[in-house]
Amino acid sequence: MRAAIIEGDGIGKEVIPEAVAILDYFNETYDWGIEKVPVEVGLGKWEKTGSAITDDDISLLKTCNLILFGAITTVNDPSYKSVLLRIRKELDLYANVRPILPISGIYKLLKIKDHKEENVNIVIVRENTEGLYSGVEEIGAEKSMTTRVITKRASERIAAFASNLASARKNKLLVVHKSNVLKSDKLFLDTCRQTAESRGVDVSDKLVDIFAYDLIMNPEKYDVVVTTNLFGDILSDLGAVLLGSIGLAPSANIGDNQAFFEPVHGSAPDIAGKGIANPIAAVLSLKMMFDYMGKTREACLVSRAVTAAVADKIVTPDLGGKYSTKEVGDFILSKVRQLDAASFCLEDPEDISKLKP
């Protein structure tokens, strides 16, 4: 098995090594046989070579089963093309999965009183290859246009993915759309509904603006949500409010044969190089990678180690702590080792999402 390691730009270079240290521990301790493949893409490469990602990079990524990705800085230059959009499209990573599952104890740490963290457990599944991120654009001085592409094929497969996930949880699926204004969303809504019903999943729908409000006010009402590309991007970032910080938000991009895991937070150039970036989102993205691999015990160990860091207040300044990126990463790794040695998480852990299509 081959795993591409892409640190990318900014704080990606600081948080990904902390996740990789945990991967190395399991890979070496249990002889998983994972070959790590370092790949350089992003702004740094663009500044040196004029290309943020090349055809050779894409070819190399296609040889890897897994991708652990840091962050990319995107500049306002017409010659700079989105690295993430190209990877998602060319590897056909059609399902973006973003869990909204607060770390136990985080609400107490941050003094959040609006909700009970045990009542918040949502997965937003986003179609990842078309919509307003189709890449079909005409850019001009007086008029610019982006074509919103919705196809039955893409809608069916994202609905099937979300339905499979829903059936493993509460068997409830919410389709979020704006079909009252965007008539292309009628195809998405109808296809998702038909697909879910054919699989015996209880399906309902809600307009995106109403859902955005209710997501924050009444998150306990929701479980698995499926939506289009732009809506999913915005809503899942909004959902980070329920996590306590965008520095705690992991994600996965999944296709039929490959999967890509990344923290949601971006490259954060304002704090890059200061050693204060929160590594937890990167570590939880690794946890999602373990879920995908079927390494449920190891995923459980990582989750419990992160919970221990929050409980002991071994956190970075964004969470009110005084610890550096590396100090938090080192603590989580040491806790993983300790729990592993104690044969912790031998039983099936809770909330292991079935991430494969």
TrEMBL record:
GO molecular function: homoisocitrate dehydrogenase activity
Listed cofactors: Mn(2+); Mg(2+)
Signal peptide: none
Origin superkingdom: Archaea
Keyword Hydrolase found: no
Family annotation (PROSITE patterns): IDH_IMDH
Record SUPFAM superfamilies: Isocitrate/Isopropylmalate dehydrogenase-like
Keywords from the UniProt entry: Magnesium, Manganese, Metal-binding, NAD, Oxidoreductase
Residue ranges of every copy of the Isopropylmalate dehydrogenase-like domain listed in the record: 2-332
Enzyme Commission (EC) number: 1.1.1.87
NCBIfam families tied to this protein: LEU3_arch
PANTHER family assigned: D-MALATE DEHYDROGENASE [DECARBOXYLATING]
Name of the protein this chain belongs to: Homoisocitrate dehydrogenase
Organism: Methanimicrococcus hacksteinii
Gene name tied to this protein: hicd_1
